[in-house]
Specification:
Radius of gyration: 30 Å
CATH superfamily of one domain: RlpA-like domain
Order of helices and strands: EEEEEEEHEHHEHEEHEHEEHE
CATH architecture of one domain: Beta Barrel
Number of helices: 7
CATH topology of one domain: Barwin-like endoglucanases
CATH class of one domain: Mainly Beta
Helix content: 10-25%
Strand content: 15-25%
Shape: globular
Number of strands: 15
Structural class: alpha+beta
Amino acid sequence: MIGGGDRLATAEGAPGTATLGPAADYPIVLGDPFTVEGELFTPTDTLNYDSVGYAGLDDGAGVTIAHRTLPLPSYAEVTSLDTGKTILVRVERRGPMAGKNLVSLSAAAATQLGVGEGAAIRLRRVNPTEPERAELRAGRSAPERIDTPKSLVEVLRRKLPASGTASLRAPAPVQASAAAPARSVAAAAVAAAPVAPALAASGPPAAVTAYPLPSLSGSAAVTRPVVVSRAEPVVTTPRPVRVVAPAVAAQSAPSPKPAPSAAAAPEAKGDFVVQAGTFASRANAQALAKKLGGHVSPSGALYRVRTGPFATRGQAEAALAKVRAAGYSDARVYTAG
């Protein structure tokens, strides 16, 4: 376990460090679960980490922060919810080890962001370019980020708790449905139901016979009684044929597939996406996604418009140029997730 005072020091030129260049970002350290004032924290490699809370200050070097669960090292954007200013930081140590603050900022990080103790912030994990990483590893600040729009800052402030932190990640979808047990019971009833008797000249069938009929809506089959007259010959009467024939057709008919939506998430595989913008309105996000041929990715109360994913960063950069040429200069490349 890495304590609050331990620093994963890998900055180029910093005292007491030996590893330089991109290799300084590896290996990534998580560490064991630990408690702070009775609350358990488990370090996790969460790619789409996104939360709001409050910042404290510590004596860390460079433009860095302390965080309780993000990998060491990793990179994140910190946004002031007072001004909208956003900076890039390197996560280098565990903390805060007291109180309910979301992060502890180094002096350089606090100065660049223009905040003090107890400032309201948003923390979002990102995957910056290697030149930006190199600046932070060297103890210098990365190039200025684009300020977060005031409209988005207001939305984020409404998510801010009175104390502690709040996640902006969308809740996990419900995996089980209440209808599932009912479908299982219906399927069991169909399995136990007798198969329709073969037509034969040995005598009339029973007055009421149970035939399993599949539902045309795609749900499990149900068993319904079909009345057959004793007075009609079994072999020559067409009545059983009219009952059985639709059932066979329903079984062989393919289930209808929903039409693809312009804002639906793509099924392609890839490591990179281009994010054109973030909206508080789903309708506005869908309109932009349709215009760009992208998709809408929910993130808490917000909706991100993205294109991709792309297999290589080169493909993503080419798509980024097209999105920015369309007038969306704030677009960026992110890792898929």
